[in-house]
C-alpha cells in the first residue's frame, strides 16, 4: 500500500516537489532497535519523514528518539493522548471509535454491562481506562477486566471467565493471533452465542483465520473496511487491483492506514491552512491537535465478510455521554 501511495504521489510531482522513495524498517523488532535505526536515518538526512502501523510501545520509544527531527505519522489505532511535537496520529482513538460503539450497542442491542479481555501491554490497559470512563458517562457497567500475556498460546481460561461474568457483552482488546485464538475458544463454549462480542481491532484476514462459524456476529468499529463504499475507498480498490492484480492479498485497515500515512505526510509538507485535511479512502480526514478526526463505521461479521451497519462518528463530533 505504501508503494501504491508513493507511485500515485510521484505521478503528481511527489512530496514538496521531490520523488517519494520508501525505506522499510521492521516494526516488530525491539523498540530500542527500531528507534536507534530510524533516528540515525533521520539525522543523516537519509529519510525526511516516518510513517507506519506498529504497537504503542514502539511509538513511545520512537517519539523521543526522533525529537521532532522529521514528521512522524503514526497510523495505528491507539489509546490516545499523544501530544509530542511533529507527531501526527491518523488512526482511530477511543473517543471516536469505542465510545460511539458502546452507545450504539446499548441502543440497538441492549448491552448495558461489559467485561473486558485484553493483551497485557500499553494499548489495551490504557484503552480500558478510557472505556471505564465512557461507560460511567453512558450509564454502562464494567463487571470485570482480564489481561493476558501478549502472544500467549492459551485462551480457554479467559474465554470461560468472560462467559461466567454474566456481562451482556465482552469487549476484546486483543491483537492479531491472540484475538483469533480467543474468538475460537469463546465460540466453542455453550451459551457464548447469547453474549455480544465487540472489538475495535479486527480486520479481514483475522476474520478468515477465526473462521466463519466462530467470528459470525462479532461487532467491529473502524475507520476503514475493505468493502467501504466511499468514493475514495472504491478508487483505492480499483488502483490496488490495477497495480497488484486481482489475486493480491485482501485489503484491510492496517494496510490502508499505511496508504493514509503517506497522504498525511504529503499534506503536512504543503501550505498550512485551517482546517487542514484531505479526502481519502476513509472519507474526510481533518487534522486538529496532532490527530486526524475521521468517520468511523460499525460493522458486524457476516460469514467471512463485514456488513457495515452505521456511521457512528463524524469529524467534529464529541464523544457521547
Automatic annotation (TrEMBL):
Entry keyword Signal: yes
Organism superkingdom: Bacteria
Signal sequence segment: none
Domain Leucine-binding protein: 2-266
InterPro entries to which the protein is assigned, alphabetical: Leu-bd, Peripla_BP_I
Keywords: Signal
Protein family (similarity comment): Belongs to the leucine-binding protein family.
Database matches in PANTHER family: ALIPHATIC AMIDASE EXPRESSION-REGULATING PROTEIN (PTHR47628:SF1), PTHR47628
Entry protein name: ABC-type branched-subunit amino acid transport system substrate-binding protein
Source organism (scientific name): Naumannella cuiyingiana
